[in-house]
Amino acid sequence: MPYCPKCKDEFREGFTACNTCEIPLVDQLPPDEPPGEPEEARDFEMIDDVPALLCNASNNIEADMIESLLGSYNIPVMKRWRYGGDIVMLYTGTSSTGADLYVPSKLLEDAKALLSSKPTAEADDEDTESFAEYAKQQEQKKQLFAQKLLIAFIALALMGVLLALVFGVFMG
Predict the structure, then answer these.
(1) Interaxial angle between packed helices 60-71 and 108-116, expressed in degrees from 0 to 180 and rounded to the nearest 10
(2) How confident is the model at residue 154 (pLDDT cuts 50, 70, 90)?
(3) Is the pTM above the cut of 0.70?
(4) Cα dihedral angle (129, 134, 137, 141), rounded to 10 degrees?
(5) Which domains does the chain carry?
(6) How far is 65 from 71, CA to CA, in rounded Å?
(7) For residue range 37-92, what is the model confidence (pLDDT) as tens digits?
């Protein structure tokens, strides 16, 4: 089977050039470079490593910000919501239970260094404070929406029970 020496994709017999990289295919890749994803795509399966706890995020906005930062450095992040927060996330799109963030143990020190690094001189203190305030306001709005949604769901469930009782009394 021919392979692309740049992106490592495998092709069927008869192909002579990679349609993505536009370079000639080779019959075999060097032994240390198996076919698959490009090397810059880091994944828990590719690294063949165990997840290590990096930190605890207090809400989904903080977790998303950390995941975005680490993703820009090709460090994969696995989120695990605490106390059933994953179920709440499915229904409401937000969770106030917090999340544990895991990274491959081989990349744990790199991830910790990124999180502990200070903003560059270009980052203005006012911008940082205003963004933190904005993120807090957005989280409060999401929590309020989730509470209203929960109250509406409970009200509908109670109405259903009440209707069942009323029709049960008149029908039975």
Answers:
(1) 110
(2) very high
(3) no
(4) -160
(5) 1-39 (no CATH), 42-119 (3.30.70)
(6) 10
(7) 444 444 555 455 788 889 888 887 888 889 888 888 888 888 887 777 667 776 77
